[in-house]
């Protein structure tokens, strides 16, 4: 196999640096990571996708090497700024969980820049949290208030990596450790004073029928019931959307089943 090369850099956008990495040649493909990780969660996919596409990944605000701005910012504007800085007019966009929410918001804010969407275990702007998720956030907040960052990190691993139907012992320990090591340094980092997030209005959940690009929806069968229900809602409301349910995996689909995930995404993109 040929040696893999990538280019890293920082883009100054919305008043703060945004860390990114680019590799490969061909049609642009943008990756948006989950809210319990950073751009390293795509390590298995990045070199493989780079064989077929010009692949771009970056750390979202407050994750990895991208600090929060000190003023108002909109997560859905960062993809536009990054792609424009790279001279890219349009890209395929893959987002997982919180990254999926940003991908969807980006598609509404800048529809001319999105060629297709792959939404994995996605969140959606405007959706109300279930009692299960609200209870989780309350437990996480209580742990952080006690200064128990390790405990809060483990709560996230049990919720999002293990899922409600598995014990930690049933999950690949390397996946758990990788997510732990990405999440632990950032879980207790608060928004700086004045760094208010600007949310898309009207919210995405009220506008799903407006999506007019090819869309692939993916979710693991061991994920939260909320995610399975939400994915079905998107499949029902996004015209022509394809839905794939991955067996024996929870929220972090691409990390637990990297080869299957890569195969499905590449097949979807090749058929466009």
Automatic annotation (TrEMBL):
State one molecular function term (GO). hydrolase activity
Gene3D superfamilies, per database record? alpha/beta hydrolase
PANTHER family, sorted: AB HYDROLASE SUPERFAMILY PROTEIN YCLE (PTHR43798:SF31), MONOACYLGLYCEROL LIPASE (PTHR43798)
Q: Does the keyword Cell membrane apply?
A: no
Any one cellular-component term (Gene Ontology) = membrane
InterPro entries given in the database record: AB_hydrolase_1 (IPR000073), AB_hydrolase_fold (IPR029058), AB_hydrolase_sf (IPR050266), Epox_hydrolase-like (IPR000639)
Its domain of life reads: Bacteria
Q: Which UniProt keywords apply?
A: Hydrolase
The molecule here is called: Alpha/beta hydrolase fold protein
Q: Which Pfam families match?
A: Abhydrolase_1
Q: Which segments constitute the AB hydrolase-1 domain?
A: 27-258
UniProt organism field = Ktedonobacter racemifer DSM 44963
